């Protein structure tokens, strides 16, 4: 899949496509149905199937404190869209300047001039342009005038499809990982690069691989029994996702202790799959109290994972 980062990297060679615009957060089964139909339409028209996403997502710019937790990072999204057979991903830098352009400019300059769209798939609630004044009806009218078709993602989804990113976040909040996996078409996973931490875990026999949560918020917080994928191998472990209140932590991160694993993982990308929630994150009266709880958490994680 070709990745186009930023509108300045679009060239005349990119004109002519079948396009869908959306968040595609999670690239779940509902999204996959849309993408399958998009590919079929692209094949009929002998044009590339193209996805456009905004980065960061609009809510993360305008209302960061209430923006929904992401199910997938951009890295994950690229990998998943590639697996769906999408030929090109256009990542538009979303900021105040981009949001302030008129809807007419968005249609004429981007969709028509730069992308040469021939078939467009968007949600019927899609809004764009200054003060979100552009809507589905405006796109339909522009399509008739400029020679491209516009359809709603609803017509491209599975029949009676109730899958949504919101429903998946709710399933994760309820620790229903089986339901979340069913809607996603795969287990929910945290993917990231291992960074250096404060190394306090190793002083009590529980060294951790630390992953920074580069998201406005995370769909999961607390202590979990997990499986960890490292270089194609899968291990069992216990993970804390949160801000480590006992240690006065401020940034959101994931810390995972991998059972029976001693190799260094710094700088490597790992995948952490939550299997069961053990408890919420809490602040303990002392580091000694935290140490005792970590031992109990590890024992419970091993018991839960052994039963799965």
TrEMBL record:
**Example GO molecular function:** FMN adenylyltransferase activity
List the EC numbers from the record: 2.7.1.26, 2.7.7.2
The pathway where this protein functions is: Cofactor biosynthesis; FMN biosynthesis; FMN from riboflavin (ATP route): step 1/1; Cofactor biosynthesis; FAD biosynthesis; FAD from FMN: step 1/1
Domain Riboflavin kinase intervals: 183-306
Q: Which reaction does it catalyse?
A: riboflavin + ATP = FMN + ADP + H(+); FMN + ATP + H(+) = FAD + diphosphate
Pfam families per the UniProt record, alphabetical? FAD_syn, Flavokinase
Look up the record and give one Gene Ontology term from the biological process aspect. FMN biosynthetic process
Enzyme category, top tier: transferase
Protein keywords = ATP-binding, FAD, Flavoprotein, FMN, Kinase, Multifunctional enzyme, Nucleotide-binding, Nucleotidyltransferase, Transferase
Q: Which domain of life is it from?
A: Bacteria
| Role this protein plays | Catalyzes the phosphorylation of riboflavin to FMN followed by the adenylation of FMN to FAD.
The family classification in the record reads: Belongs to the ribF family.
Q: Would you tell me the protein name for this molecule?
A: Riboflavin biosynthesis protein
Species of provenance? Alteromonas sediminis
